[in-house]
Amino acid sequence: MAPSSTNRDRRRVVLLPLPYQGHINPMLRLAAALHSRGLAVTILHPETRAPERRKLPADYRLVTIPDNIPPEVAASRDVASFVFALNRNCAAAFRDYLAGALREEEEGEDGHVAFVVADVDWFVPLSVARELGVAALALMTSSAVRFLVYLAYPSLCHKGYLPVQESNFNIAVEELPPFVVQDLHLVMDKTRHLAYTDLLAHIVAGVRQSSGLIINTSEDIEGMEIERIRSEIALPVFSVGPLHMMTSSSVESSLLTEDRSCLDWLDTQRPNSVVYVSFGSLVGIDTDEFLEMAWGLANSQRPFVWVVRPRLVHDCESSAIPGELQQKMGNRGRIVSWAPQQEVLRHPSVAAFLTHCGWNSTTESISEGVPMICRPLSGDQMGTARYVCDVWKVGVRVEVENQLKRGEVQAAITRLMDGKEGEMVRERMRDLRHVVVKCTSEGGTSDVALQRLVDSNI
Ligand code: UDX
């Protein structure tokens, strides 16, 4: 087939997302932002959880590469094993693809591959691209401070902060204020801790050898953290987020089908009255936590939309709510298996977001000015909750000793929705929203950084 002039004339970016919803979303948002600034887009994706072709804009290329990963490994919560297997199994196919693209470029059949962007977790492709002489940048889909944790991990282990022990939970981490030990990472099992430490060492080494680091954050909300990264890695750093605000063209990237009926239901609710509850795409909670959450919502007497996705409750086949509790909830709640989250957060009836503090959920909440009720559970979420509650002060925490107990969710909802503290939180959230709107608008720090990336000759 004769190549189209569009293909030949445009610089091309090849993007390689990690196949998790929380990583696919920011990578596809970056794709849309680069595309809107004139770059042609190729999405290179392992077969596992590959996006559907029909959902992507017509002129994107989607190339799926075999990963030979059994579905049970891909679905397990053992992220380190999955990421190592992906890097191992996809290396040859990635090399073949990129070498082929370079040949076509040389023969004048296709445009110039300007650069590759791979999730930081793709450490092997980052080094393969480098071997083939293609500039390859790493995308950190989470916060800048999370990347600082990655950089500090070996020394944090050496100093005995990690693996986390319950007796040390509240000890201040002097190297990373205002973190305490439990904000770092809750891997307490020794074997999993070793695997995770090994993974982070590979990630950091991959980034250090890349052509630059792109972070889904903004100078205006994590300026000091970004400066510190710059001082620790001798690479260009582009803070171009929050990425969902960087272009008006949206890309449909949900792996699950959205239940849009909750938007109609929200239309029937009073402005500023509803609590939206979601724990993202990955974490699992046990039945006790699930039921306490349900009691908290029921007893709060507030209307709510709650995302109970498949496998949210990990020790139980069904996440059914017992009859007594259902009665207590009456018609005040709407449970869906997956929501159009950004539209829900934008809805005028929504007053608060009870969240696990995934980085995407957090930045989506900030961009809509919705204050948060934080119940972080794993990974980067504890650190993000620390920033939400104690640095930006745009949310309150569900105060939990150990296991979630009756009254704790209700108390957090009341603190945010009724008290003086809630008023101050809402005011600060309005201010923070202005900050992110400004930095992602024309001439703002993220807008300028994105243009610098597009124009750069890395
Ligand atoms: C994971 C980690 O848990 C998170 O901490 C890390 O920052 C990224 O990887 P996840 O748990 O899925 O991500 O949370 P989050 O980062 O919030 O991403 C979830 C995404 O799914 C968001 O973009 C959100 O808008 C979307 N979503 C969630 C929906 O579209 N509908 C829903 O019902 C729930």
From TrEMBL:
<dbReference type="Pfam" id="PF00201">
    <property type="entry name" value="UDPGT"/>
</dbReference>
<dbReference type="GO" id="GO:0047254">
    <property type="term" value="F:2,4-dihydroxy-7-methoxy-2H-1,4-benzoxazin-3(4H)-one 2-D-glucosyltransferase activity"/>
</dbReference>
<comment type="function">
    <text>Glucosyltransferase involved in the last step of benzoxazinoid glucoside biosynthesis. Catalyzes the glucosylation of hydroxamic acids utilizing UDP-glucose as glucose doner, reducing the toxicity of these natural insecticides for storage. Can use DIMBOA and DIBOA as substrates, HMBOA (2-hydroxy-7-methoxy-2H-1,4-benzoxazin-3(4H)-one) and HBOA (2-hydroxy-2H-1,4-benzoxazin-3(4H)-one) with a lower efficiency, but not indole acetic acid or quercitin.</text>
</comment>
<comment type="similarity">
    <text>Belongs to the UDP-glycosyltransferase family.</text>
</comment>
<keyword id="KW-0328">Glycosyltransferase</keyword>
<dbReference type="InterPro" id="IPR035595">
    <property type="entry name" value="UDP_glycos_trans_CS"/>
</dbReference>
<protein>
    <recommendedName>
        <fullName>Glycosyltransferase</fullName>
        <ecNumber>2.4.1.-</ecNumber>
    </recommendedName>
</protein>
<keyword id="KW-0808">Transferase</keyword>
<dbReference type="GO" id="GO:0080044">
    <property type="term" value="F:quercetin 7-O-glucosyltransferase activity"/>
</dbReference>
<dbReference type="InterPro" id="IPR002213">
    <property type="entry name" value="UDP_glucos_trans"/>
</dbReference>
<dbReference type="GO" id="GO:0080043">
    <property type="term" value="F:quercetin 3-O-glucosyltransferase activity"/>
</dbReference>
